[in-house]
Design a protein that fits this description.
It holds the Pfam family HisKA. It catalyses: ATP + protein L-histidine = ADP + protein N-phospho-L-histidine. Keywords: ATP-binding, Coiled coil, Kinase, Nucleotide-binding, Phosphoprotein, Transferase, Two-component regulatory system. With 460 residues, the protein is of the alpha+beta class. The protein folds into 4 domains: 79 residues; 99 residues, PAS domain (Beta-Lactamase, 2-Layer Sandwich); 117 residues; 153 residues, Histidine kinase-like ATPase, C-terminal domain (Heat Shock Protein 90), CATH 3.30.565.10. 57% of the residues lie in helices and 18% in strands. The chain has 13 helices and 14 strands. The protein binds adenosine-5'-diphosphate and magnesium ion.
Length: 460
């Protein structure tokens, strides 16, 4: 400002000097002419003063604007410098106009080194074809997103995600492109590591589910084996007895058709206990047949389980499944548990028999584990019709459910059993099956102690 004041007074002094010269020049003219000329000169000087004052004002305004412009420029520069993303500004033909410090650091050069070079020159040769797409967007709404590598002093850079947006002049004409780029190599590697870990976890989970399936199949097979063992062993016993009877009968028949007399035959009949043998024969055959029927029933139940296709819903006899599942599940585990049934007659559910059986085996299996160590372990299985649903309750007098367990019971992998004994998948799988059937599975502690699991399925 001081400078401007000084220069102002210098110009003023010059004008004053000129005015004085003109005054002297006009001194010899006639009065009227001199006064006219003087008036004109005064007018000129007044105009000049006005113009000069305007000039001064414009100069002040210009300097103010200049300062504002410099401040705005400094602000923009500081923003651009602070941007950690790589920033490249190109003209309409894809020639570089300016790059920010992050770009200089990446490319290992100054902005002026790359100015006017084609954007393609900054990209790794393998990605050069992409340059046209990056600077080719026409409409302002076209934002191009690509992944490229840049050329650096040490070879190709990491992978960068580049975002290219069109740049316009104040009248809206497209004048070029602004590219922002951010390294994604690290992110990509982290993502890939995460993806690999996730896949591994999924594989492990599938394996565990398979293991749980194999374990429940194992329990089923153990139960079935016990269940078959009993009739098969008495069929064996009966057949051995029948074989002994056959030999005695054969001896007796030989004596009968040989040359033995009646007395000898009567003695032999007493000795071989032929009459007792004949009395026993009927019940032996009956017992063997009963054993065979039990074996055949077990096989029929097994076939029902294994031949019903998943997703194929059918009406299932609730009592039959509850009794077989309970029998097989208890047979599969050591120790005695008192099982009692409280079932409304002729209940049926709609569902897949194998899966329904699997839920019941899982629930009874857990109940057997829970009652272990109780003085009089017992499990009660009841079933009722409630409207359109059948409600099956499996109640035990075991240790019950802790607060934490109640919240987590149906979560996969929740188990309180030692490693190798529990997978924590039984209830999760059972819950899923119940939901797929349009039913539900819930659990609560009983007021008298122990837990009760309630399975609801649509009536069939
Ligand atoms: N009848 C029950 N009484 C008490 N706790 C139970 C009962 N049933 C299940 N639980 C609890 O729920 C957990 C999860 O059961 P489950 O999903 O079948 O897995 P797992 O039997 O392999 O542990 C069990 O470890 C146990 O803590
Ligand atoms: Mg279980």
């Amino acid at each position: 400002m001081a400078e401007r004041g000084e220069s102002g007074s210098k110009v003023g002094a010059e004008i004053g000097l000129k005015t004085g010269l003109l005054d002297r020049a006009g001194a010899g003219l006639p009065f009227a002419l001199a006064s006219d000329q003087e008036t004109a000169w005064i007018e000129v000087i007044r105009k000049m003063d006005e113009v000069y004052a305007d000039l001064l004002r414009y100069e002040t305004e210009l300097e103010d604007k200049n300062t504002a412009l410099e401040e705005a420029q400094a602000f923009i520069s500081s923003v651009i410098e602070a941007v950690s993303d790589v920033l490249i500004v190109c003209d309409r033909d894809g020639r570089v106009l300016q790059i920010n410090p992050a770009a200089m650091q990446l490319l290992g050069c100054r902005s002026e080194d790359v100015a006017q070079r084609s954007l393609a020159d900054l990209l790794d040769p393998a990605d050069r074809r992409q340059a046209a797409a990056l600077v080719g967007a026409q409409a302002s709404s076209d934002v191009v997103n690509l992944e490229v590598r840049f050329v650096t002093a040490h070879g190709p850079s990491d992978l960068y995600a580049v975002n290219a947006a069109t740049r316009h002049d104040p009248t809206g004409v497209r004048v070029g492109t602004v590219l922002t780029a951010r390294p994604i190599g690290e992110l990509r590697r982290a993502y890939e590591a995460l993806h690999a870990a996730h896949s591994k976890l999924q594989r492990a989970q599938r394996q565990l589910i398979e293991q749980e399936k194999m374990a429940s199949l194992g329990r089923l097979v153990a139960g079935v084996a016990h269940e078959l063992n009993n009739p098969i062993s008495f069929i064996y016993g009966n057949i051995h007895t029948l074989e002994r009877y056959r030999k005695r009968l054969s001896n007796y028949l030989q004596a009968l058709h040989g040359d033995a007399d009646a007395e000898e035959i009567a003695a032999l009949r007493r000795e071989l206990r032929i009459d007792a043998l004949l009395d026993d024969y009927g019940s032996l055959i009956e017992g063997t047949l009963e054993g065979a029927t039990r074996v055949s029933d077990v096989v029929k139940n097994l076939r029902r389980l294994s031949f019903s296709k998943p997703g194929e819903m059918q009406s299932i006899d609730v009592e039959r499944v509850l009794r077989t599942a309970a029998l097989w599940a208890t047979r599969a585990k050591p120790g005695h548990v008192a099982l009692s049934f409280d079932l409304e007659p002729e209940l049926a559910v709609m569902g897949h028999e194998g899966q329904f059986h699997q839920i019941i085996v899982n629930l009874i299996d857990n109940a057997i584990d829970a009652v272990r160590g109780q003085v009089a372990p017992s499990i009660t299985i009841s079933a009722r019709r409630q409207g359109d649903d059948i409600t099956i309750t499996i109640a035990d007098n075991g240790h019950g459910l802790s607060e934490a367990a109640i919240d987590l019971l149906f979560e996969p992998f929740f188990t309180t059993k030692p490693v190798g004994e529990g997978t924590g998948l039984g209830l999760w799988i059972s819950y899923g099956i119940a939901r797929e059937h349009g039913g539900s599975l819930s659990a609560a502690n009983r007021p008298e102690g122990g837990a009760a699991f309630v399975l609801t399925l649509p009536a069939g």
